[in-house]
Automatic annotation (TrEMBL):
CDD domains: ABC_Carb_Monos_I, ABC_Carb_Monos_II. This is Monosaccharide ABC transporter ATP-binding protein (CUT2 family). It is found in: Cell membrane. It comes from the Bacteria. One of its GO terms (cellular component) is plasma membrane. Residues 3-238, 255-498 form the ABC transporter domain. Its main location: membrane. Keywords: ATP-binding, Cell membrane, Membrane, Nucleotide-binding, Repeat, Sugar transport, Translocase, Transport. It comes from Breoghania corrubedonensis. GO terms for molecular function: ATP binding; ATP hydrolysis activity. It is a peripheral membrane protein.
Length: 509
């Protein structure tokens, strides 16, 4: 065995994050580490890489016990990690990022030509066609991720840990990344892969270990598992009534709804071309498109994060201001963006305070919510979204990644906006909570809230949407309703100019 973990235990005040966990990783193996939000995956990885100290248990690498005290010590031993948020520096060149901390020098200065050669050598075999002397910022998230992997492999070279590496990649980029990872496996690395995308687990991995509430509940060959059994391992029970299977019926009659508001010729040069969009009361609008196609840009425009250059928003009372997020909130809009960190999750405030924050700001500080009202609100959403926390007073920073995501969602739902924009609301969220969130969307829209949802998971988009807008090259290129909403028509509209009904407004001047 390349890596052996025996009886690993880690406790935090009030939580046993890992309870005597065993884990084995062979050389030349891709091993999935799975479990619900808060199951202990990231904690296991942090103990393994020296980011956390452990309370008990043994870790051995190639038969020798190890106790790395820091991630750089772990790297020296051969264990490299790449997280979802790539921790490289965007304003340095690719070469500087790759050689950071061990730059070749000449006469006491960094030897730029040797650095470039070294960087190019490090990227050999990864199938990237890039200029290492350009800033990292010039390249997509996918390319950055591969660069981060190349750096980790060059520094470490035995064990590579990928913690939700595909969360912000599109399908093609995922394939590229997988090719890279398979290549590394074939070179004899042991790879740990953490993901909530079960399809990817089946496509990529050789073995699966499942954690539940800090305990190992299964370790099996991927080929011996199926989706249903895997989900049962994760949840500890069968997943009743998966929402995907019970999606909208997509009959045209249901699409006839009273209009809540409409955007006319709404656009911004260089951001999104002007579009017309009517929103029905209680309607779910899906926004489909590739990464970078203009989905998030559309959402930003609709919420006043960037100001429109043209057009207007109107409802039954006439036009209203959408020139800033503050104006958008005043107009009854809500927006949960994709990056929860940028959304200002306040890590050292409690779950209660984070959920009450936006609502309190909206009501104004004079009409203060009492502590008891806040607690009631928080407890309600903790239960509805199954937020794993030991109570409303726990600091949000102590929650697992997926549970922080649920807190962001709760915050916006608590405001009860008339129009809520959700950018990738189920990203990083486990299967059980995933279904719960889709159910919640159906519930609040039945009560009259209108929702615009951006999702890269087509099945999910199809299951919840009454209407799907397809965005390509920063234009709204198609609008699908009723029976037109199938993955086939959506994919074709994403790919081909002639597919779908043209609905893009005029060309930007
Ligand atoms: N620094 C910390 N302080 C207190 N509790 C923590 C800390 N880090 C993690 N925990 C707790 O340990 C448990 C396991 O969290 P962990 O982040 O390992 O989950 P995870 O499996 O990675 O979940 P996710 O899929 O949401 O990323 C959770 O209950 C979490 O609240
Ligand atoms: Mg995690």
């Amino acid at each position: 065995m390349l890596l052996t973990i025996r009886s690993l235990t880690k406790t935090f005040p009030g939580t046993t994050a890992l309870d005597a966990v065993d884990f084995d990783l062979a050389a030349g193996e891709i091993h999935a580490l799975l479990g619900e939000n808060g199951a202990g995956k990231s904690t296991l990885i942090k103990c393994l890489t020296g980011a956390y100290s452990r309370d008990g248990g043994e870790i051995s690498l190639e038969g020798r016990p190890i106790s790395p005290r820091s991630t750089s010590k772990a790297q020296e031993l051969g264990i490299g990690t790449v997280y979802q948020e790539v921790n490289l520096l965007a304003n340095l060149t690719v070469a500087q990022n790759l050689t950071f901390g061990r730059e070749p020098t000449r006469f006491g200065m960094v030897d730029a030509r040797a650095q470039k050669r070294q960087a190019e050598a490090m990227l050999e075999g990864y199938g990237l066609d890039i200029d290492v002397s350009r800033n990292l910022a010039a390249y997509s998230v996918a390319v950055r991720q591969i660069i981060a992997i190349a750096r980790a492999v060059a520094l470490s070279g035995k064990v590579l840990i990928l913690d939700e590496p595909t969360a912000s990649l599109d399908a093609r980029e995922v394939e590229t990344l997988f090719d890279v990872v398979r290549g590394l496996r074939d070179r004899g690395l042991g790879i740990v892969f953490v993901s909530h995308f079960l399809d990817q687990v089946f496509a990529l991995t050789d073995r699966v270990t499942v954690l539940r509430n800090g305990r190992r509940v299964a370790s099996e060959r991927t080929a011996d598992l199926n989706r249903v059994r895997l989900i049962e391992h994760m949840l500890g029970h069968a997943l009743e009534d998966e929402v995907i299977a019970h999606g909208k019926t997509h009959d045209a009659a249901a699409a006839q709804r009273p209009e809540l508001l409409r955007f006319e010729n709404f656009g911004r040069r260089g951001h999104v071309e002007p579009f017309d969009l009517a929103v029905g009361r209680g309607e779910v609008l899906g926004l489909a498109g590739l990464l970078g196609s203009g989905r998030t840009e559309s959402a930003e425009l609709l919420f006043g994060v960037v100001e429109a250059h043209s057009g207007a928003a109107r409802d039954e009372n006439g036009t209203f201001d959408l020139s800033s997020p503050r104006a958008a909130v005043a107009a009854g809009f809500g927006y949960a963006p994709e990056e929860r960190k940028e959304d200002g999750i306040v890590a050292d405030l409690s779950v209660r305070e984070n959920i009450a924050l936006a609502l309190q700001a909206h009501r104004g500080w004079l009409r203060r919510l009492s502590g008891a009202e806040q607690a009631r609100l928080a407890n309600n959403y903790i239960a509805r979204l199954d937020i794993r926390t030991f109570g409303p007073e726990q600091p949000v920073g102590e929650l697992s990644g997926g549970n922080q995501q649920k807190v962001v969602l709760a915050r916006w739902l608590a405001m009860n906006p008339r129009f809520l924009i959700l950018d990738e609301p189920t990203r990083g969220i486990d299967v059980g909570a995933h279904a719960e969130i889709l159910r919640l969307i159906q519930k609040v829209t039945a009560e009259g809230m209108s929702i615009l949802i951006i999702s890269s998971e087509l099945d999910e988009l199809i299951a919840v949407s009454d209407r799907v807008i397809v965005v390509r090259d920063r234009r709204h290129v198609a609008e699908l309703t009723g029976r037109e909403i199938t993955s086939d028509t959506i994919v074709r509209a994403i790919a081909a100019p002639q597919a779908g009904r043209q609905n893009s407004g005029e060309e930007a001047a």
